[in-house]
Structure formats: C-alpha cells, structure tokens
Design goal:
The complex is a heterodimer of chains A (348) and B (327). Chain A is of the alpha/beta class and 348 residues long. Chain A contains 14 helices and 11 strands. In chain A, the strands form 2 sheets. Chain A has an 8-stranded mixed β-sheet. Chain A has a 3-stranded mixed β-sheet with strand order 5-9-10. The radius of gyration of chain A is 23 Å and the shape is elongated. Chain A starts with a helix and ends in an 18-residue tail after the last helix. Chain B has 2 domains: 62 residues; 262 residues, Orthogonal Bundle (MetI-like fold), CATH 1.10.3720.10. A two-stranded antiparallel sheet of chain B has the order 1-2. Chain B has 327 residues and is mostly helical. Classes of the chains: A alpha/beta (348), B mainly alpha (327). Chains A and B meet through helix 3, strand 7 and helix 9 of A and strand 1, helix 5 and helix 11 of B.
C-alpha cells in the first residue's frame, strides 16, 4: 500500500516538474519589480511559462547572474562594456522611467517652478541655499519666491534613482562630477536622507522649502509638486511619458556598445533630461538554451504586448526602434552547440 | 524462603533492566541538550568567522583609518566608520537615558503600588509594546512622531536649552523633525518593554518578609525600593538594562526611517546622523564592488565588537558589585 503511494507520489513529482520545466528565474533591481511581476503574470496566462523574479537590488542582481544562480540579472546601472565582455554577458534595456525634482514651497503648484540642471546641481552641492536666489528668480519671473532656506532631501538607500539623478548632475555640472560623482549611494555634501521614495516624499512634504527627487510614478500618484527642467536644447519641459519617450527615441542606442547608455541629458526638443532605463543581463553562451529561449520569449512578448501595462504603472515602454536593435543583439546568443538561440520572434 | 528470594532477585533483575533503560535515556538526553548548547557556540563562531572573512579586505585596505575616518564615499570607494559608530552610541545613550528611568518607574508601580485590578492591563500593554514590529515604529516615527517633534519639542529645546552656552550646541540648528534625537527617543520607547518586563519579574522575586520587615520599622515605599528591593535584584536589573541596550544598538528599521541618514558627525542632537545598522539597511542591496561590500560587512563586524564590549562591561560590573557586597 505504502509502496503504491510512493510510486504515485514519485510519478506526480515527475509530472509536476515536467510541467514546470519552463520556469525562468531572475533577480535584481527593485525599481522595475512591479512591472516585471505584472508582465510575468500575464505571460504565464498565455504561454504557461512562469517567471520568478526576486527584487533584491541591482548589486544583488549582478552578483547572482555572475554566480549563475539565475537565468537573468537586472540592474538599473548598466555595466561597462569591458565588464560585460569579461563576464561573457549581454545587456539590454527593458523599460524606462523618469526621475523628477519635487519641491515644497508655499503657493507654488505642480509644474510651475522652472529649474535648470546647473541650478539643481548648485542646490544639491549646498551652494544655492535660498529659494529667492537670483539664479532661481531670474528663471521664474512670474513667481513670488520666498526668502526661505532650501532643505535638500535625498535618498538614503542605495538606489538606481539616485544613480540616474547623480549621472544627470554630473553631466551638467563639472563641479558635481569632480566633488561628488555618480553611484547608487553618494557622499552627499548636504541634506537629509529619506529611505525609499516614500521616505523622501514624507520629509519633503512636511518640510517648508524642501526639494527632493523621486521616481516619476511616485510623484504622479502622490500628486507632488514637480518642477519643469531645462533640457539640453535649453527648452523647459515637464515630466510626462511623452518627454521620457522623446529622450529614449533621440538617444543614440546604435552607437552605444552593450547599450551602456543613460538617458540623461539627451538631445531632442521635448526630451526630459533625467530619464533612465533599467537593464537585463544574460549570458552570451547559454548552457540551458531552452530556458534562455523561454526568457527571451518573455522579454519579446513584454516589449510587444506590455506597453499598455507599463504605462498603467507609469513606466515608459521602449521605443520600437530600440526593440529592433535589441532583438538583433539576441541573435548573437548561442547554446552549448554554438547555434543561435534566437532567430526571430516568429518562432513563438 | 527460597520463594521469596527468587521473587526478590526477579524483582531486582527487572528493576536493573528498568534502571538501564532509564540510564540510556538519561544519556541521550544529556548528549542531546549538550549538542544544542554547543550548536549555539558553533553558530556564533560561524558568524564571527564569516564577518571577519568578509570584513578583512576593507580592514586591510583602510587599516585604522576605517574607524577614524568620517568620509563614506561609495564613488571614490573611500570608507570610514566614525559617523555610524558615533550615531550608534549616541542614539543608544539617549534611549537608555529615557528608557531606564521610565522602565524603573513602571516596574516599581506594577510590583509595589499598583491596585491589583490594574496590574494585568498595564502588564499586558507593556508586553504588547514589545510585539509591535520595528517597521511600524519607523513608519509611525516618520509620519507622526517626527512632525510632532518638529513643531513642539524641538523648537522648545532650541529656544531654551539651545540658548545655554556649552550644552546649547547640542540643541542648535533648525528643527528638522528627524535626526539623532528623534531616533534616540523612538529607541527609548522601543526598549521600554524589554527593560520593564525583566525589572518587574525580578522585583517580584524579593521575599515579602524582607519588604515587610522594612515597612515594619517604618520605612517609606521609596526607602524600601531603594534599600531593599534594588540591592536584592540588582543583577537582574542590570541584565534587563543590558538586554535593552543590546536591542537599541542593533535596531535597524525604525532608526533608518527617522535618523536622516547623513554620514556626518555634527555637534547638535537635532542634526541628522546615521547608525551602523541603518547604514547596512540602506546600502546593502545596491552595493556593487568588493571593497564597498566588504566595508559594509566591516561595519557589521564593528557593531558585533561594540555589543561584545557592552556585554563584557556589564559582566565585569556585576562581578565587582558582588565582590563589594560580599554576596
């Protein structure tokens, strides 16, 4: 009796594992987790391929893919080409988001205040300390700015948001580049650190004269007082999905090896200057071509059918021409037999 | 006669058999409990080894400057632990300054003065405080407590204590709401239940006879507490305080939310700072680069050492106390 039961159980396990063979595992950045989870759910309903994503942070994602415990890693910070080649990895952008400055000044409404990158850098360097500083006032002739101290708020946790923000400041301010630099955490010259978007938002929203930076989705959903920002062409733009798309479309992806490109300070009349993509990391030579193919199918499906879902969650889908480029890159990925894993999305 | 003898020897044999089985069980029990006790040591040893192993690259790279330097710069990979160490010690000190007297008051009230019907509700409330997850303290601290302090206690401190030369420096600067003082206050609330419940338990072990004799010769409640209850229970009291201090030193989430997370040592208690555990919670997930990660692990190692020193000091204090009173 017991024996029979054991055989049945073993058979069930086998069958079960057979059905679950197509499971993709990934780990990394927390910023895209909500949209990856949503895509995974929708993709599973269609293809019966499950995707298991652990949002352990970009650093963890890079570590996990390098130790080959996951099928793909995810990072908000693109790896350099040398590092990719050394590890035998390919990298491609998956989805985008924007970072927006938010302020808390009495009688100033969302989108009213205009700032430039240089001023933003000066504020975060602790050099511009009052809201009625001539540099700010001359940009905003119509606004009544108080003689109030600026309370600078930044992220305290290591974050891709900080990385993108700092990258922008470094591009527009040589002083920022020299003194502070770019990373997921920084040695901040001034200000208070809040944990997560919610921490920054909480401090900024109850400190008069505060300025902070949060992910666009967070600013929008919480109706925070975002500012306009001058882009590379000197044009004042407001943050929205059009201005993020514009930044991505105008970026020179074709000439960025390994897609190592941050979308900050991109050309284009409508481009929002602090835009960034989040990246996927996979091995160029795959030991398990079946799983790798399933993962690529998932990414392909998400590129082509996930745009609406991404916009619902205030992410920005990749422009079609970037997707084309990425899928060309996929053709270079090979299995153990040297044959390419991905020929075209038609195979699905 | 022989019948009786066989019955006795029969009984003897059976008893011996029973005793043998008992013996075996006894031995298994001893080995089993011993194994669990040793397991704790093995786990502790494993943690120490892992911490040292992880911290070694950073400690070797920076040497002593890791402890003395105030710079924490992930960009240039220049790391120093002085600001987090300072923040850890100062917030824990504030927590103790607030937690110990209040806990003492609560414990004395419950054991000596409380009407019997109130004993249980107060006791249960204290224990419930211990059951609140620390993230809840953090969120409450950030959204409720810090704004409240910003508009009430902090301006008051700045206007009064802040004006006094000398200690005024501790209360200088704008009222930001969050900062070292706020973190210390929240820690003070968080350690209350731990210290209180241990104090209450040990106060209840004082033999009623001792207290009654003291009352009998005309002592006031305060005199009984100070001269009878406290000397009788001081080991337990110190133990409770140390448990609370250990909790304060290592508390992570609640502190991370309200301390302001600045790697700077500023004179004022109202200024933002950071602690070791807050630094770890903030940066571990996104730390890329071996030296960065190793420096974070080294921070963890330092926290471990601080806790060890605190425990050793407590033990040492107890031994000296015992010697002095000759018990």
């Amino acid at each position: 009796m017991l024996k029979k039961f054991l055989i049945a159980a073993a058979a069930a396990t086998l069958l079960w594992s057979g059905a679950e063979a197509a499971e993709i595992s990934g780990a990394g950045a927390t910023f895209p987790y909500p949209i990856y989870a949503k895509w995974a759910e929708a993709f599973k309903a269609k293809s019966n391929i499950a995707m298991n994503y652990q949002s352990i942070g970009s650093g963890g994602g890079i570590k996990q893919i390098k130790s080959k415990t996951v099928d793909f890693g995810a990072s908000d910070m693109p790896l350099k080409v040398e590092e990719l080649n050394e590890a035998g990895l390919v990298q491609f952008p998956m989805v985008m988001g924007g970072v927006v400055p938010v302020v808390n000044i009495k009688e100033i409404k969302p989108g009213e205040l205009k700032l430039t990158g240089t001023i933003l850098a000066s504020i975060y360097l602790g050099k511009v300390t009052k809201w009625n500083d001539p540099a700010i006032a001359s940009l905003n002739p119509g606004l009544k700015l108080p003689s109030q101290a600026i309370a600078v708020v930044h992220r305290s946790d290591g974050s891709g948001t900080t990385f993108i923000f700092a990258d922008y400041l470094a591009k527009v301010s040589p002083e920022w580049k020299g003194k502070v630099g770019v990373n997921t955490s920084l040695e901040w010259p001034t200000g208070l650190g809040g944990k997560g978007n919610e921490g920054v938002a909480a401090i900024a929203s109850r400190t008069d004269g505060a300025i902070g930076y949060v992910e666009y989705a967070y600013a929008k959903q919480n109706k925070m007082t975002f500012t306009q920002l001058a882009n590379r062409g000197g044009q004042m733009v407001a943050p929205n999905s059009d201005s993020f798309q514009s930044a991505a479309a105008n970026a020179d992806w074709a000439n960025a090896p390994g897609y190592n490109l941050l979308l900050t300070d991109q050309p284009g009349k409508q481009s929002w200057p602090i835009t960034g993509a989040t990246f996927i990391l996979m091995y160029k030579n795959q030991a398990k071509p079946e799983t790798a193919k399933a993962a690529l199918q998932f990414f392909d499906w998400s590129y082509k059918n996930g745009g609406k879902m991404a916009e619902d969650l205030d992410y920005v889908p990749m422009p079609a021409k970037v997707i084309q480029l990425v899928e060309e890159t996929w053709k270079k990925m090979t299995g153990p037999d040297g044959k390419p894993i991905w020929t075209s999305s038609a195979g699905m | 006669m022989s019948d009786l003898a066989t019955r006795i020897s029969d009984w003897d044999a059976r008893y011996a058999g029973w005793a043998r089985t008992q013996n075996v069980f006894d031995r298994i029990f001893r080995v089993g409990t011993g194994f669990f006790a040793v397991l704790v040591l093995v786990i502790l040893g494993g943690v120490i080894v892992a911490l040292i192993d992880g911290a070694l690259p950073a400690l070797r790279h920076f040497g002593w400057t890791f402890v003395t330097s105030e710079s924490w710069n992930p960009v240039t990979e220049n790391f120093g632990a002085r600001a987090p160490i300072y923040g850890t010690l100062v917030t824990s000190l504030i927590a103790m300054l607030i937690g110990i007297p209040i806990s003492f008051g609560i414990a004395i009230f419950i054991t000596e003065l409380c009407p019997p019907w109130l004993k249980r509700p107060v006791g249960v409330a204290i224990e419930l405080l211990a059951g609140i997850p620390s993230i809840i303290y953090g969120i409450w601290g950030l959204f409720v407590f810090a704004p409240y302090l910003q508009s009430t206690l902090q301006p008051l401190l700045i206007d009064t204590l802040g004006e006094i030369p000398g200690i005024g420096k501790l209360f200088a600067g704008p009222p930001l709401g969050i900062g070292i003082l706020t973190a210390g206050l929240i820690l003070g609330i968080m350690v209350l239940p731990f210290i209180t419940s241990i104090m209450r338990d040990v106060f209840e072990t004082v033999p009623p006879m001792l207290k009654e004799s003291a009352y009998g010769i005309g002592c006031t409640t305060w005199e009984v507490v100070w001269n009878v209850v406290l000397p009788y229970t001081r080991i337990g009291v110190v133990g409770g305080i140390m448990l609370g201090l250990g909790r304060a030193l290592g508390e992570t989430m609640a502190v991370t939310f309200v301390i302001g997370n600045a790697y700077k040592i500023q004179g004022s208690l109202l200024a933002p700072g950071t602690t070791i555990s807050a630094a770890l919670a903030n940066e571990f997930t996104e730390a890329v680069g071996d030296l960065y990660l190793s420096s974070l692990i080294a921070l963890g190692f330092i926290l471990f050492v601080i806790t060890l020193i605190v425990l050793a000091l407590a033990k040492f204090m107890l031994i000296r106390l015992e010697r002095r009173t000759g018990t």
